[in-house]
Each structure stands twice: as structure tokens, then as C-alpha cells.
């Protein structure tokens, strides 16, 4: 093999090797870091794994929010109007967290069937519903009518 | 009546832009100078009419014309005038108009600033830009006209601008981001024009470089501003969330960064040509993809506007046409491209190749993480999200590798470099960087991880290598140091500035990730909490009335090492028109640390949930971004581009 070819081959091998390693690492990292979404009904049916990071969402049940009066611990329930899931969270809730509001919580199911949340997300628009929640509600046939003061065209 | 004129002006602009995308192209193909010469007036005209329609929309906001649906949905009589101005791009329709205006602005700039270009290239460049402009004007007029009316039942009061967007950051962030995004359309147009004309040479790279540098610099600024805005406005004190929309702006930036470097090789050495063209195509395609992701509402994100499948579909088709068309052209023409020189295994060319590969790897990673949930969802395999750990796990080590090679690359020679003297040159700066990095972190309290050390050491490494390189260049010639410093070209200083920006950014990321202190607390009036050397004393809240909001304003006294230091006033605002609650954090900025206080919700007995944060070196993140931006502008303004371009143009005329 002449030196020029050899050099080219080295470069190509270098690139291929780099790409191969990075694709491998990428897929590995991806498989470690995906959080599947479960609706309250799926969780009630026991589809959600215990001790694995998942996302769960639905509407916050009216009257279910209970604050601890010593700490920032809070408990509430989310529902897709078929089933309810209790959520435990310790920390500051987002501005748009309210009873009757669609939220997504990220955390792990514990043995007692509660979601131990590490993050609670509610989006910054009161007419906005996380798509996962909307779909879960639609599946349960419980999609509420929009009631904002958005002007329709 | 006036808003209808806005639509009318857009239609006129569309007609001009259709002409712009055809006449000069045909002219360039046939070598008809008269037809090519239409390009310039058409560009000016298109910009003029789009500017008119933009002014008209702004006017509708300023006079509270709520018969215009877009104004009614995004403004309110109580909104201060400056937010009325920025509300013009606070929603989907208006931000699209801003996008179109920006694109027309770039076209105008190319038309006016490119007297040095050969006529046929200029005609093709403007023609390609005309096609892009036509696409976006059609999109605006067909799916998202901001001038639609609510007649005869127009409301007396508007729904108000989303309070999150009532902020200085929003006034400047979107225009900058758009200018950067859209700026890559110029690099794209140059690449397509070069493919069409078959003249893919160093001259082409030289014309394209300043434009690409400017677009890249502005995009850098846009992303930096976005990060800064998210930091203080979202109330969480985070500066990068790996939110899909952030990723959408980061991907074109990564490819754009690769493009800036690859163009340098193409210009100086005449190699990497087809790769450079491919990067230009991808940088612009990723900008379009970003637009699609944001506009179509397929993403769950803070940035997602009201969703409309029709809009998403339009952009998807447009994306398909642009990417498909340009890749087809590339496939047909790239085989004709020949390299003009060769290079050794150890050379600056190789180093820049490594840079390009690593940047492409990061971009691919981010792309995969962003699109994977969409793909799984589209296949009906469930809903999932990809968390920040994924993105960090890949971009951090690859980024570190990038910095390591960056230090070597900047001192490596073009064409061929002997390994031994290079290694000799590297040993001292590297050892020094390790020693300095370890010394910096060792005395610091708190837990530094291996990555913290890596980040800080690599930052010192870049600093040392920059100093090594500058001192060598200064000593090389016989005249005085000062003379030599002045003789170094502006583009060289631009490069060093941008690279030092990377170092500063790395310090910011490493330090704030490792030493950030955050306490989420329940605080009653009179209670205090210590964070680092600072003590925060919560004094209680007061009720305050703003122009379009009411607010609970908390007072926190801050002690530094037990001596009074400052008073901070975080707020919880209720924007009355929409009933939105907003957290207004208060911060005490500093070069080496920020104090950050945000209110959570009110608890019983006057107690509040409060988040206290101590964020070391967080400003360095944005300082680094600004340095990179400044470096980009400095390099683009190097007088040699204008001189050489003029010479090349003369050469072309002589040859013709």
C-alpha cells in the first residue's frame, strides 16, 4: 500500500472508529435515560415499574393537595378521571400548579403505590395541557372543554 | 384599513420575492447580465414591503387595535409601550413576521455589501435566498397571517402578553436568535450558488466566511441571551435545561461552529470543500428543523406556541424540499469537486478535521436525544422523555476532548508538522495547566468531581496555549513586541478571543455545576438561613400594585460573614388580565458568584416557600458566550476579506 493510501485509510478508520464508539455510547446513554410516561390508569393496573424513574401525569384532583405544616412536603393526587395516583413531593411547586390543573410529575413509584416525585412540571400557560396528559384524558374520554379567554378566529 | 395594508404589503413582497428567486437565477444560467442586475432592486423592494408590514403590525399594537386577532391575543391596554413593541414577536404569527423581516434584512445586506462578488454568483446567491424568502412568505400568508381580523365582534380589551415574556430578555433574545438562525441561510445560499456554478474554490470560501462568522456570532449571542433570560426569568436559577427548543438552537450552532472552522481550511488550503458545502446545507437545514420543532407544537416545551398541525405540515414539506433539493444537487455536483492540496497526518488540517468530527458527534447526539421521543411516539410505542443526564453524559466528555484538541490545533502548522517539536511545545503548558487547575480547586470547599477538575484544567490549558502561541508569534520577527502585536491580523485576535471564550465558558460550567448551593425552605418572618458565607433573614412580604399586575414582595436581609451586605426583594406576581402567577426572582450578581432568591408559594401564617441559591461563577457562562461572539465579529471584520475579494473579483473580470 502506498503511503498516501495508508494515510487516508488511517483517517477513515479514525473517523469510523470515532463514529462507532460515539454511536455505541449514545445508544447506551439513551437507554439509561429515557423516562416512560404512564397514565394514572396504567399505574392503577400495575403497568408502571417500581423503583424506576418514570413520568406520570394528569389533572390534580380538587381538594387533594395536603401540605405538611413543618416542611415543604406536599401530597396530592392526579387523575385521568378513571383512576387516581397519589404523588408525594418535597420542594417548591411550579407557579401554575393548582387543583384542577394538568401536570406531569417525574419520579419513582414506591412499594405503597405512591409516586415519589423529584420534579413537578406545569407549563407556563393556563390553557396549555402537557400533550401526554391530554392524550391520557382523551383515551379515558374525559377531555375537559377549553375555558380560557383565548379569542377564536 | 391599515392592517389590510399590512397584508397587502406582504403580498407585494411575495411577488417581488418570487421574481427574485427566478429572474436572476435564469440570468445567471444564461449569462444574461441584465437579468442578473434585477436581483439588487428586487431585494431592496422585498425588504421595503416586509418592513412596512412589520411597522404596520407594530402600529396596531401601539394603538391597541384589538380588532386584529393577533393583537387581541397578545396585548392589553395596560401593557407598557416597550412591551407592546416586543409583543409584536411574542406569539407565533408575529415572530414569523420577524423571521421574514430578518431574512429580508440579510438579503438586503448581501445585495448591498457584495459589489466585490462576480455578477453571476451574486445573482445565484440572491436567487437562492429569494426561494427561501418565498417559502416563508407563503407560510406567513397561508397559515399564519398576523393581520387577521376579529370583526365585527372585536373585544374591548386584549388578553395580555404572556407575563413570562414581559421582560427585557424577550425584547432582545428572539431577534438575535432569529438573526443567527436566518444568517445561516446566507452561508447556505453561497454553498448552493457555488454548486450551481461549479466554482467551489478558495474564493468562494473567502466570500462566504465573513457572512458565516457574523451569523455564527449573532446566533452565539442569541443562545447566550436565551440562557441568561431563562436563568433570571423562569425563577429556577437554571441556565440550560436541554429543553428540545434549546437543543433546536444548539444544533445549528454546533454545525455552524464546524462550518466556520471548515471554511477556514477550505479558504487557506483548498481542501474539505465538499464537506464544507455539506455543513452549510446542514447548518441551514437544522435551523429550519428548529423552526419546525418550535412552530409545529410537536414538542412539550416552555417555548411551544399554540399548536396547529397545518403549520407543522407546511414547514415539514418546506424542510423536505430544501434538504432534499440541496442534497440532490450536492449528490450531482460533489463528485466534480477536487482538493487543491494534500496534508500530513499531523497538521492543522487534521486538527480541524478532529474539531469537525467531534462537533458533528455532539450535534448528532443532541439530535438523537431530541428526536427519539418524537420517533417513538410516532411509531405508537409509548410516550417518553429523554432526561438531561443523557445529554450531559455525552456532550461533557466530547466537549472536553474538543477543548484538549483545540489547545493543540491552534499551534499546529498547516500542511505538515513534525511530531516531536509539537509535543515539546505542549508539555510545559499542559503540566502548568494541571498544576494551576488543581491549586485553584484544592482549597475550595465543596465537592469537586473529576469533571470539575477536567473543566478547570482544560480552561487553563487553553489559556496557556493561547499565551504560548501569541508569545511565539511576537518573538518570531525582529521588530519590537508592540509592533508585532499590532501586525497580527484582526482575524487572529478574533480566533484567540473566541477560544478564550470557550475556556471561560468551561470554567463557568464546571464551577457552577460543582459548587452551586441550593436550599428550598419554608421560612416564617424573622427566620434566617445560612448559605455559604451568606445569611438570609426573611422579613416578610408586602402587597404591591404594578401597572398590569399585583404582587407579593418579600424582603430578605442578607448578611455577609455576619455583617449587613444587601437587601433582596423577590416577588410573586399575579398578572390580572390572564390570571397568571409569575415568580420574579431577585439576584445579586457578581463576577465570582450570584445570590439568587425566589419565592415559591405562600404557606399558612405568613410563611413562604423560598428558594435560596448561591451560584459561583455563573456569570462566566455568558461572559464566555459574549467573548465567542466578539471573536466572531472581530474575525469577520478583518480587512483582508474585502481586499482579497476585490482582487479576486478583478481577476474574474480579467478572465472572463
Description:
The complex is a heterodimer of chains A (153) and B (656). The radius of gyration of chain A is 23 Å and the shape is elongated. Chain A starts with a helix and ends in a 14-residue tail after the last helix. Chain A has 153 residues and is an alpha+beta fold. Helices cover 29% and strands 29% of the residues of chain A. In chain A, β6 and β7 form a beta hairpin. Chain A has helices at residues 3-32, 40-44, 131-139, and strands at residues 34-38, 53-60, 66-67, 73-79, 84-90, 102-109, 115-121. Chain A has three helices and seven strands; from the N terminus they run αβαββββββα. Chain B has four domains: 1-162, no CATH class; 167-404, no CATH class; 405-513, no CATH class; 517-619, no CATH class. Chain B contains 20 helices and eleven strands. Chain B has helices spanning 2-30, 33-36, 39-62, 69-74, 81-87, 92-113, 119-143, 168-197, 202-233, 244-269, 273-296, 309-333, 348-378, 388-409, 419-442, 450-476, 481-487, 490-515, 618-636, 639-655; strands at 384-386, 517-523, 528-531, 534-545, 549-560, 563-568, 571-575, 580-584, 586-588, 593-602, 608-616. In chain B, the strands form two sheets. In chain B, strands 3, 4, 5, 6, 7 and 8 form a six-stranded antiparallel sheet that branches. Chain B has a four-stranded antiparallel sheet with strand order 2-11-10-9. In chain B, α1 runs antiparallel to α3, α7 (119-143) packs across α8 and α10 (244-269) runs antiparallel to α11 (273-296). Chain B is globular and about 80 Å long. The model of chain B is unreliable at 301-306 (pLDDT under 50).
Amino acid at each position: 500500500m502506498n503511503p498516501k493510501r495508508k494515510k487516508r485509510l488511517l483517517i477513515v478508520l479514525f473517523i469510523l472508529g470515532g463514529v462507532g464508539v460515539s454511536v455505541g455510547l449514545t445508544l447506551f446513554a439513551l437507554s439509561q435515560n429515557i423516562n416512560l410516561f404512564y397514565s394514572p390508569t396504567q399505574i392503577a393496573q400495575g403497568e408502571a415499574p417500581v423503583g424506576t424513574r418514570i413520568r406520570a401525569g394528569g389533572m390534580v384532583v380538587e381538594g387533594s393537595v395536603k401540605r405538611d405544616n413543618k416542611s415543604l412536603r406536599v401530597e396530592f393526587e392526579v387523575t385521568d378521571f378513571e383512576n387516581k395516583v397519589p404523588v408525594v413531593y418535597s420542594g417548591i411547586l411550579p407557579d401554575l400548579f393548582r387543583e384542577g390543573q394538568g401536570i406531569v410529575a417525574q419520579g419513582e413509584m414506591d412499594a405503597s403505590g405512591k409516586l415519589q416525585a423529584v420534579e413537578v412540571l406545569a407549563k407556563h400557560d393556563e390553557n396549555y395541557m402537557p400533550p401526554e396528559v391530554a392524550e391520557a384524558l382523551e383515551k379515558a374520554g374525559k377531555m375537559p372543554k377549553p375555558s380560557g379567554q383565548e379569542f377564536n378566529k | 384599513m391599515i392592517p389590510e395594508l399590512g397584508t397587502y404589503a406582504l403580498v407585494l413582497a411575495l411577488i417581488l420575492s418570487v421574481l427574485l428567486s427566478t429572474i436572476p437565477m435564469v440570468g445567471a444560467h444564461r449569462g444574461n447580465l441584465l437579468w442578473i442586475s434585477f436581483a439588487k432592486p428586487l431585494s431592496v423592494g422585498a425588504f421595503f414591503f416586509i418592513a412596512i408590514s412589520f411597522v404596520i403590525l407594530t402600529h396596531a399594537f401601539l394603538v391597541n387595535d384589538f380588532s386584529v386577532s393577533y393583537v387581541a391575543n397578545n396585548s392589553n391596554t395596560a401593557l407598557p409601550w416597550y412591551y407592546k413593541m416586543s409583543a409584536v414577536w411574542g406569539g407565533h404569527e408575529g415572530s414569523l413576521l420577524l423571521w421574514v423581516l430578518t431574512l429580508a434584512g440579510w438579503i438586503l445586506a448581501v445585495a448591498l455589501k457584495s459589489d466585490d462578488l462576480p455578477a453571476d454568483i451574486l445573482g445565484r446567491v440572491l436567487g437562492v435566498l429569494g426561494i427561501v424568502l418565498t417559502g416563508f412568505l407563503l407560510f406567513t400568508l397561508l397559515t399564519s397571517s398576523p393581520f387577521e381580523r376579529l370583526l365585527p365582534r372585536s373585544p374591548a380589551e386584549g388578553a395580555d402578553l404572556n407575563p413570562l415574556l414581559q421582560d427585557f430578555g424577550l425584547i432582545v433574545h428572539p431577534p438575535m436568535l432569529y438573526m443567527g438562525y436566518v444568517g445561516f441561510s446566507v452561508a447556505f445560499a453561497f454553498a448552493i450558488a457555488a454548486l450551481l456554478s461549479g466554482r467551489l474554490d478558495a474564493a468562494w470560501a473567502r466570500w462566504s466566511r465573513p457572512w458565516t462568522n457574523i451569523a455564527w456570532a449573532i446566533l452565539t449571542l442569541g443562545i447566550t441571551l436565551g440562557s441568561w433570560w431563562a436563568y433570571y426569568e423562569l425563577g429556577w436559577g437554571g441556565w440550560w435545561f436541554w429543553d428540545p427548543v434549546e437543543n433546536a438552537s444548539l444544533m445549528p450552532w454546533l454545525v455552524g461552529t464546524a462550518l466556520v472552522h471548515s471554511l477556514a481550511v477550505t479558504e487557506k488550503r483548498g481542501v474539505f470543500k465538499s464537506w464544507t458545502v455539506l455543513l452549510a446545507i446542514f447548518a441551514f437545514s437544522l435551523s429550519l428543523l428548529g423552526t419546525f420543532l418550535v412552530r409545529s407544537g410537536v414538542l412539550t416545551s416552555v417555548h411551544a406556541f399554540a399548536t396547529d398541525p397545518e403549520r407543522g405540515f407546511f414547514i415539514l414539506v418546506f424542510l423536505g424540499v430544501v434538504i432534499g433539493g440541496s442534497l440532490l444537487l450536492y449528490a450531482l455536483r460533489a463528485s466534480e469537486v477536487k482538493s487543491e492540496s494534500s496534508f500530513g497526518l499531523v497538521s492543522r488540517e487534521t486538527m480541524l478535521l478532529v474539531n469537525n468530527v467531534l462537533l458533528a458527534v455532539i450535534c448528532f447526539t443532541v439530535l438523537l436525544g431530541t428526536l427519539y421521543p418524537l420517533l417513538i411516539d410516532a411509531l405508537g410505542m409509548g410516550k417518553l422523555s429523554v432526561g438531561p443526564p443523557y445529554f450531559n453524559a455525552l456532550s461533557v466528555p466530547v466537549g472536553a476532548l474538543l477543548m484538549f484538541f483545540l489547545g493543540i490545533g491552534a499551534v499546529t502548522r498547516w500542511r505538515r508538522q513534525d511530531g516531536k517539536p509539537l509535543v515539546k511545545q505542549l508539555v510545559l503548558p499542559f503540566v502548568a495547566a494541571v498544576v494551576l487547575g488543581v491549586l485553584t480547586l484544592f482549597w475550595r470547599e465543596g465537592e469537586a468531581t473529576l469533571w470539575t477538575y477536567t473543566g478547570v484544567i482544560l480552561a487553563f490549558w487553553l489559556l496557556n496555549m493561547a499565551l504560548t502561541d501569541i508569545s511565539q508569534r511576537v518573538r518570531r520577527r525582529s521588530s519590537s513586541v508592540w509592533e508585532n502585536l499590532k501586525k497580527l491580523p484582526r482575524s487572529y485576535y478574533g480566533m484567540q478571543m473566541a477560544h478564550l471564550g470557550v475556556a471561560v465558558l468551561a470554567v463557568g460550567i464546571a464551577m457552577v455545576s460543582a459548587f452551586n448551593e441550593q436550599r428550598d425552605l419554608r421560612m416564617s418572618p424573622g427566620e434566617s438561613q445560612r448559605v455559604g458565607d451568606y445569611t438570609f433573614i426573611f422579613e416578610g412580604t408586602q402587597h404591591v400594585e404594578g401597572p398590569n399586575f399585583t404582587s407579593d414582595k418579600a424582603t430578605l436581609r442578607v448578611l455577609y460573614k455576619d455583617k449587613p451586605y444587601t437587601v433582596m426583594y423577590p416577588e410573586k406576581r399575579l398578572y390580572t388580565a390572564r390570571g397568571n402567577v409569575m415568580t420574579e426572582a431577585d439576584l445579586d450578581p457578581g463576577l465570582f458568584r450570584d445570590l439568587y432568591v425566589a419565592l415559591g408559594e405562600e404557606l399558612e401564617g405568613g410563611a413562604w416557600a423560598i428558594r435560596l441559591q448561591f451560584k459561583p461563577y455563573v456569570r462566566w457562562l455568558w461572559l464566555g458566550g459574549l467573548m465567542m461572539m466578539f471573536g466572531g465579529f472581530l474575525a469577520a471584520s478583518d480587512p483582508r476579506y474585502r481586499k482579497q475579494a476585490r482582487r479576486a473579483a478583478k481577476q474574474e473580470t480579467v478572465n472572463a
